[in-house]
């Protein structure tokens, strides 16, 4: 009868823990303190109740099927119980696995297994323990069934906290890449204006993302008008990257917008050179290729603006960079100076 009482008490604590882990983890420091205190109390209660239940079942011969040697049997039971409690403790105290954003694939499954480990892991102990309370129930089933459930629960319990951090980091990186990919594809499907879609043609994105974005851009009925609007009102760099690899049917429509964009380009170049907090300079090589490739007949119109850009590029660069390698940035600036010089000499 006492065994049933301990079993009921353990189940009651298990239910409270299950309800506890289903709640979202708090974010504030005061709330975190209260959350951690509650978790520790519940874990302690579960540990004590399950330990007393394990001792009761052991004393009543519930684990005699393990071994005839009492010392060996008790040692194995202690290890099995400890592993299961360790697993429940780990899963209860790891709120970072209680994801609030949408996960996908294997990472989602792994995260959910750990996040809800305090719910399913105790069941691997409680179900066999319930059968152990009555010898006639225990004897109707094969010991291999109990052994499989208990050993699996204990092994999982021991493995969870000693999982190498490098594996967890790789999961996180994989998860973040997958989430970023799905988010990009969702945005491409949602966005209609070329200026927004151009963002995803950057070479920092996966080829699949770039191709999907480019396909949608080229299918736009107002492609040239929206490219011109982007040149005039938004960032011109994405437009130049697009024009570098894609021909337009009416290049003459772009001449005036490009000329207007030079004031901003020149100002940005000066800021990129002298500001140590800037991440390098924009790609002048692309700009020069676009002018020569699609607007060769209008080179004379662009030349005064390139001369002004050359003048700005002679500005001494920042002595240090906060976020990039100073020497590498300077080498890029010097290379672009030569590119501009050669372009002007050619034209």
Helix content: over 70%
Query: Quick one: how many beta strands?
Result: 0
For the sheet with most strands, the description reads: none
> What's the helix-strand series?
HHHHHHHHHHHHHHHHH
Strand content: under 5%
Mean pLDDT: 83
Number of domains: 3
Query: pLDDT under 50 segments (min length 5)?
Result: 97-103
- Please state the CA-atom Rg, rounded to the nearest Å: 33 Å
Structural class: mainly alpha
Number of continuous helical runs: 17
Transmembrane segments: 6-22, 34-55, 75-93, 113-133, 145-168
InterPro entries: Clostridium_toxin_transloc (IPR036248)
Keywords: Membrane, Transmembrane, Transmembrane helix
Any overview of this molecule?
The chain contains 17 helices and no strands. Helix content is 72%, strand content 0%. The radius of gyration is 33 Å and the shape is elongated. The chain has helices spanning 2-21, 29-59, 70-92, 105-115, 117-120, 123-132, 135-139, 143-159, 165-190, 194-198, 207-218, 223-233, 237-245, 255-274, 284-294, 299-313, 326-346. Helix 3 (70-92) packs across helix 8 (143-159), helix 12 runs parallel beside helix 14 (255-274) and helix 16 packs antiparallel against helix 17. By secondary structure, it is an all-alpha fold. It has 3 domains: 2-163; 177-220, no CATH class; 222-346.
């Amino acid at each position: 009868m006492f065994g049933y009482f301990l079993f009921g008490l353990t189940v009651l604590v298990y239910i409270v823990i299950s309800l506890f882990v289903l709640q979202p983890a708090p974010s504030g420091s005061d709330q975190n303190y209260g959350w951690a205190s509650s978790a520790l109390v519940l874990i302690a209660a579960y540990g004590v109740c399950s330990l007393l239940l394990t001792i009761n079942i052991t004393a009543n011969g519930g684990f005699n099927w393990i071994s005839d040697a009492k010392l060996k049997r008790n040692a194995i039971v202690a290890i099995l119980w400890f592993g299961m409690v360790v697993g429940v403790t780990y899963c209860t105290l790891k709120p970072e696995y209680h994801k609030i954003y949408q996960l996908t694939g294997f990472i989602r499954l792994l995260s959910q297994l750990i996040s809800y480990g305090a719910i399913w892991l105790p069941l691997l102990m409680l179900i066999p323990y319930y059968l152990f309370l009555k010898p006639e129930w225990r004897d109707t089933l094969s010991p291999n069934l109990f052994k499989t459930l208990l050993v699996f629960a204990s092994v999982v319990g021991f493995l969870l906290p000693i999982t190498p951090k490098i594996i967890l980091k790789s999961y996180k990186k994989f998860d973040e890449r997958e989430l970023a990919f799905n988010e990009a594809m969702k945005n491409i499907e949602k966005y209609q204006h070329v200026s927004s879609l151009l963002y995803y043609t950057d070479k920092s994105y996966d080829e699949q993302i770039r191709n999907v974005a480019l396909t949608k851009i080229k299918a736009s009925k107002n492609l040239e008008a929206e490219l011109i609007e982007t040149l005039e009102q938004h960032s011109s760099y994405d437009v130049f990257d697009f024009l570098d690899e894609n021909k337009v049917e009416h290049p003459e429509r772009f001449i005036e917008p490009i000329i207007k964009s030079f004031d901003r380009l020149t100002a940005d170049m000066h800021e990129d050179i002298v500001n140590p907090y800037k991440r390098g300079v924009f790609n002048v090589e692309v700009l020069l290729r676009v002018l020569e490739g699609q607007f060769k007949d209008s080179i004379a119109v662009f030349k005064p603006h390139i001369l002004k850009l050359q003048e700005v590029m002679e500005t001494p660069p920042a002595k240090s960079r906060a976020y990039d390698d100073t020497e590498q940035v300077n080498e890029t600036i010097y290379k672009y100076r030569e590119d501009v010089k050669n372009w002007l000499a050619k034209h």
